[in-house]
Fold:
Amino acid sequence: HARTRNSATRIMTSIGTHSGAFQADEALGVWLLRRLPQYKSASLTRSRDPDVLKPLTIVIDVAGLYDHDQLRYDHHQRGFFETFDGENKAARDGGRPDVTGPESATGVFKTKLSASGLVYKHYGREILCALHPTLRSSPDALEWVYTKMYRDFMEGLDANDNGIEIADQVSYKDGTSLPMRVARLNSRWNEPAGSGPTETERFEQASALCGSEFGAALEYIVECELPARSLVEEALQARHSVHPCGEVLCLSSGGCPWKTHLYELERSLGVEPLVKFVLYPDTAGMWRVQAVTVEGTAFTNRLGLLEPWRGVRDAELAAKCGIPGAKFVHASGFIGGHETNEGALQMALKTIESSR
Structure:
């Protein structure tokens, strides 16, 4: 953790950020800091005056300095380019000339951090454990959640606050995003002076909104995605017991989000050959056989169910595939169904054998 500076003028722990119109970035950053024991009861000062900001314990999104030791986390200064997992040790001194953008950044992530991104980078693990204490007992799970939360939630806010478009050309404008909802909490240009909530009250509303969104996203990852990952890993390790070819995965629970976990685990475990089909029961008790898509695509299958079966159902399908109890195959061949687990497995194996 960063060293807390001693100062005769510091009576209590304090958080500082800029005054004026607020954005999701610093609103979330303040909420995140307040999850930490050392800032739980900290006062908040919103100002752009260097003399007002100087004695504060920690300052984000203002003051033109990024220095973890001094607890200063701004991202607006010239030469700044810090990423979630990259190293730019000279960033506090104005950055390095050779680290000026995504093409020169180290690490997997290439998005420039915002103030809340800096807070998350340095304090994220501690914040996650404060919100979900069970993560403390599993370092591997904590690290996975820490990275997953950045990829799924934080990175988009970093990009938005730094003016990075989601694509070179977009087809429509999204007015429902968290940054847009926070922006609408600011006072309007034509509001009568003194009417409605104060600027500080509006900021606190924005901070609470950002915290609610962060908490909900994290809860989903910890309570839904993390157990799913464990289930997929167990199934992947046991794939040869389903069939010696190792290309069919069997999940005991339907509805489990498995795709992203499968891709990640295949890479980390060095799986070869890659899994072609996943079997699982649906809510009606039918066994599904679903093709695994090529990573990065939505509709391109590694191997689709056989073409003559596609769009065919029930008795006609059973006759065509020679597997009694076959229920259906989708017209695109990405999924099919059978009355039993064994029958669904046979549909997958016949397809695999035909492709060799």
